[in-house]
Amino acid sequence: MLAGQIAFYVLAAAAIGSGIGVIAFRNAVYSALSLIVNLFCLALFFLMLNAIFLATVQVLVYAGAIMVLFLFVVTMLSPENDESLPTPDRLGLWQRGAAVGLGIILAGAIGYIVVGQAALHPDAVATGAQDLASQISRNGNTEAFGQALFHGFLFPFEVTSVILVAAIVGAVVLGRRTSSREGE
Q1: CA separation (Å) from 77 to 67, 89, 105, 173?
Q2: Residue 97: what are its φ and ψ, rounded to 5°?
Q3: Per residue in 127-153, is it b (16+ CB within 10 Å) or e — as a string?
Q4: Predicted pLDDT of residue 57
Q5: In angstroms, rounded to a whole number, what is the distance separating the alpha carbons of residues 62 and 43?
Q6: How far apart are CA 65 and CA 51, in angstroms?
Q7: Could you write out the DSSP letters of every residue in 60-119?
Q8: CA angle 108, 113, 118 (to 5 degrees)
């Protein structure tokens, strides 16, 4: 059996399992997290079909922006459901293992990005408007946009995402603090 077929079957099982999780979980937060896993599986299917732009848009727009907004609304509308959300003292063994595994993957990805920056193709680095215009004329809009965003402007892109995540966490903390004071 080919590696691509094995990857497809594993990914299909994960997509079906997370799809069942969307409708099976009684907690809306767990359903939304299961939907995020399903959207990531869909993005990986796009990658298997060499549709890199669709996979990127799938992760950035749907799994990233829309689902973060959805989770924010769900958690803000049900602040009395705090006992169902995991806290560090109520995490199970598999949740801690998953957190450690994802942390290792994140550290590896960051290391790959930092070390791999020097080995980029010269066309992938677009730092000015003229470089980007010449890339668009050579490669086309989508490819030039992807190369500029994820190679030439990778650091500002990541800093922007960290700032947005910090703003969302701050809004949730302030919203929770306000709703807990109203209950007193």
Answers
A1: 15, 24, 32, 13
A2: -65, -40
A3: eeeebbeebbeeeeeebbbebbeebbb
A4: 83
A5: 10
A6: 20
A7: IIIIIIIHHHHHHHHHHH-GGGGGGS--GGG--HHHHHHHHHHHHHHHHHHHHHHHHGGG
A8: 135
Structure tokens at 161: 């995402």
Q: pLDDT, tens digit, for every residue of 137-152?
A: 776 677 766 766 676 6
* 93 to 18, 20, 27: CA distances (angstroms): 20, 23, 20
The helix-helix angle for 154-182 and 67-77 (nearest 10°) equals: 10
* CA separation, residue 99 to residues 7, 25, 77, 96, 102 (Å): 23, 20, 26, 5, 5
d(CA 115, CA 148): 18
**In angstroms, rounded to a whole number, what is the distance separating the alpha carbons of residues 165 and 94?**
25
- pTM of the predicted model as reported, rounded to 2 decimal places: 0.51
What is the average pLDDT value for the chain, to the nearest integer?
Answer: 75
CA separation (Å) from 92 to 6, 105, 114? 30, 20, 33
> Taking the domains of the chain in order of start, what are their residue ranges?
1-85
Please give the structure tokens belonging to residue 150: 């994820």
The span from the CA of 49 to the CA of 58, in Å, is 14
Q: What are phi and psi of 27, to 5 degrees?
A: -85, 130
Q: CB of 37 within 8 A of CB of 130?
A: no
CATH architecture of 1-85: Up-down Bundle (1.20)
